[in-house]
Amino acid sequence: MENFPQDIYTEPEPDADTLANLGPLTGMAGIWTGTRGLDVNPKADGPERQAFIEHMELQPIDAQTNGPQLFYGLRYHTRIVKPDGVETFHDQVGYWLWEPATGTVIQTLSIPRGQAAMAVGHAEAGARTFRLQAVRGSTVNGIVSNTFLEHAFRTESYTITVSIHDDGTWSYEQDTVLIIPGQAEPFHHTDRNTLRKIGEPVPNPMARAAARTPGDAQGR
């Protein structure tokens, strides 16, 4: 059981600079592109291997508190297309969160197919690789789906492993385990890509405010 404090109301004073407090998420902040993605998804006649191109933006948010709990994080949006394509192949939004006090890493995600999830893992502040998982039925790192997806492509679990590389890139590998009617074994829907930075993150609002001179703050 978690060792929660008796005082569940008093909030800590967070650092204004989120970018300086992201722990293992530090190497993910910014605007990224990945041109060598690979998706393996289920089709009626067997698995389909689909190459994809990805644009991902991860921007720092102001620190978030739940009483004594304190998170620093990144708001993200990823849009994926097929090579030479325009139509969106996959769209996803959410947050990456880091809780320094416990070493907890959280990814929340939502896709416009009527599905949302929260994956949870643990890592040291300087970790270069970490793994998160969401599991169907859990109330703390669970998965919720619309009725058709629950019937036809039931998601049992979602696992993502992130690796931060010395050359400034970072990569991920995802394994989404599906239960599909008529298939004797679970299907592993996998995705992987390596992201290269094309733009720097914009400091969070509190960091920008703290960086202003007194004259700037007064509108001079």
TrEMBL record:
Pfam families: THAP4_heme-bd
Domain THAP4-like heme-binding: 21-197
Signal peptide: none
InterPro entries: Calycin, THAP4-like_heme-bd, UCP036226
Region annotation Disordered: where it falls in the sequence: 197-220
Gene3D superfamilies linked: 2.40.128.20
Tree of life domain: Bacteria
Protein name: FABP family protein
